[in-house]
DNA sequence: ATATCTGCAAAGACTTTGCATGAGA
DNA sequence: TCTCATGCAAAGTCTTTGCAGATAT
């Protein structure tokens, strides 16, 4: 892996963010971040737990939850809800439009497609909206989600 | 109340949709729709249950959940998730931009603000995106959500 | 040294399911 | 009449909490 989170470069960047917050850099945390970095997809806590478990079997599910909560709170990880009762997590890879994407959720089978169409235009509108909302409501907006719901190709075909 | 769901007009419109689907028009269902119609806000299942309970005390929470599932499936109700572990429900009031709105969620206290800034522009972009995604992925898109997360005025002040 | 972190087990919160009874068409 | 819907209780899922032992700095 080679992004913001990779092993290479001038030390792991998140180390600084951890230290600044008074958080310790522990093996479970390193492995959880590694798993998030290696997987481009919206993983559930259990998905992450299973992958982490393969690397370091003594790490428990509780630690996964607690670490994710921490990372979400620090703004390093996004938490999504696709309506199936379990949260999904994804590493933030910066604000540039190249990494920006959203989700298309099949309400029938749960399939999720990442998309990034019209991201430039979207970011423009989002930024405008964001500024307006910050001014109007005094909110400090940190992120946003945009999701489309419907039937995927396969489910649509079955229903017809 | 006077909208699409009101008592007035040429009969309750949703009756037709129910009959068409082979669903029965029962007292619990009528009351749940009434409660949704009278409240403009994203209610949790329990919120709805409590209001329904005041009108007709024998209706149970299970029925509320089952009815909401039905209504969401029929596309008459939106289900939202604001990240606090409980789903919220809101009556669909048509696709016109006058009723279209989104949510601003405080990740600290859970406060939710409805907003409708730049809705016209948004719908334009959404429609364009929607068409592109339907063509590209074969999805039949039925709706979308756009949510901003951050700190509300009060929480921002406290944290400073 | 010492405050933070972890794993386990148990608890908690929300939602769904099984089943006999009741009700709409 | 004959399905479909309801209510209760129980079960199911995902997530959080309490606590003693382990760990990072």
Total number of distinct structural domains of chain A: 2
Q: Count of DSSP helices of chain A?
A: 6
| Derived structural class of chain A | alpha+beta
* Largest interface: pair, residues per side: A-B, 38 and 38 residues
Under CATH at level 1, the class of the largest domain in chain A stands as Mainly Alpha
What's the rounded overall pLDDT mean of chain A?
A: 90
Kindly provide the radius of gyration of chain A, computed on alpha-carbon positions and rounded to a whole number of angstroms.
18 Å
Low-confidence stretches of chain A: 7-11
Oligomer: homodimer
- By CATH, the superfamily of the largest domain in chain A comes out as Winged helix-like DNA-binding domain superfamily/Winged helix DNA-binding domain
Helix content of chain A: 40-55%
CATH architecture of the largest domain in chain A: Orthogonal Bundle
The third-level CATH topology of the largest domain in chain A is Arc Repressor Mutant, subunit A
Annotation, overall tally of beta strands of chain A: 6
Terminus-to-terminus distance of chain A = 43 Å
Question: In sequence order, what are the helices and strands of chain A, one letter per element?
Answer: HHEHHEEEEHEH
Please summarize the sheet with the most strands of chain A.
3 strands, antiparallel
